[in-house]
Amino acid sequence: MLDLLHPLELFSEETPVETTFRFGVTGLGKTLDAGSSEHDVQPGASVEAPLWLVRPLVGRSMASIKLPTIYGERYQRKLNAGADCVSLKNLAPYFYEVGNKLNEMWERSPIFSDFLVRTFRSRYYELISKGLNSMTGEEVLLLCSKLSVEEQQLFEGGRVSTVCFDSWLQMERPAAARLPQPRQTRKRSAEQAAGQPTLKQAIRV
Amino acid sequence: MSAFGKRGVELLKEVVNHEPDMLPSYNEELVRLVFSEIDEHYVQAQRVLSAVNCNQQSQQEGEEEDTGEQAEGGGLQDKPADAVAMVIHYESIARNKRLLLSYIAQRVERLKNVRWQHRELPESVAEACSPQELEFYHKYDQLLTKHMSKHEGIGHDLTLDILPPGDNFVAVRVVRDAGMQLFSSGPLGLHEGACLRLPADEAQPFLISGVLKLDNRKEFI
């Protein structure tokens, strides 16, 4: 859960969810359903409403929801099959944030919680972690087209820290290069000049 | 009635999608439209409520005439569809309020950053602000200046080194003539193209104003 006024929290709550109104709604037929010509929403009618509107209605038992397709069985199978099978960027840009909120409405169903955690784990390991270690520019672009907004932020954070670490390592190098070189070469040549066996020759003996 | 909270989201996207260090112009027109949507929801909610109250009254009067006893009920409990409409109107008002607050919070955060990074309000930013935002900036500026002043505050300019310096001295290049300037080591001419090593805290104001630029050439360091 993000902050109350955090823009990503507000944007994620715009996700449409299919809602069935138990008692109907007076006077909001055309507003809730743009295609409808009726003044009221009839009891039992289903319309797509934003998540922020659905939560209080479900909490008061005034409406029930149908799980969005991305969290359905078909996509669960796809996501379980492989981390990179599904591109979340287009299908569900706020996959985890919306998933958490839907889970809250269902009083934290253990099966759904497991599904979210499993998906995050596999995608984190297969996509984000591997993407940070060994990838070309084109591969990174392709990867970014599959990540959800939350995953994208995590990936960006990891990328920035990798760049910072690399630049820190590079700063160390010139300092090491400036260190005085060991005088072994000069010593060895002096020993050779004196006719004494060098270390290499001594080992051979 | 317009789509629920869409204008508020549009408003927020405008500031979030803008460059992080810049402030987009205050969109007074869209803010006004969000307020009008709130008013619209309030009027609709009042209408639903008055209709329910009228129904309740007429029902009670009818039952009193029939039985001679005071009747109960006839409110929102008996009309759940009206209750749902009331909840939707209330939530829509709260949602729009939240979007507006987030819009203002995002802009205020950027204004605060301007004070810490540039010390004074650039003209381009001032033009993008609303009168209320300008008032906020000036009061924030006064508070921060007072907090950092020698007599009333801590006596140290906190905006000087936002990031800790790696060295006491920095290598800089003069990119704009600034004439003779007084440093702790004595007077020094800042002439365009000159490369200097100056104390980090003394170079900072000139770096912010664009007279100096950090010189990252390795041979110079």
Automatic annotation (TrEMBL), chain A:
Out of the domains of life, which is the source? Answer: Eukaryota
By its UniProt entry, which InterPro entries does this protein fall under? GINS_bundle-like_dom_sf, GINS_Psf3, GINS_Psf3_sf
Output the Gene3D superfamilies linked to this UniProt entry.
Answer: 1.20.58.2050
Q: Where is this region: Disordered?
A: 176-205
Coiled-coil region = none
This protein is called DNA replication complex GINS protein PSF3
Q: Which organism is it from?
A: Dunaliella salina (Green alga)
From TrEMBL, chain B:
Fetch the CDD domains from UniProt: GINS_A_psf1
- Region Disordered, as annotated, extends over 55-78
The entry's localization annotation reads:
Nucleus
Key word Signal present in the record?
Answer: no
Q: Which Pfam families would you find in this protein's record?
A: Sld5 (PF05916)
**Family per similarity comment:** Belongs to the GINS1/PSF1 family.
Protein name, entry field: GINS subunit domain-containing protein
Species for this entry: Dunaliella salina (Green alga)
Q: What is the lineage of its organism?
A: Eukaryota, Viridiplantae, Chlorophyta, core chlorophytes, Chlorophyceae
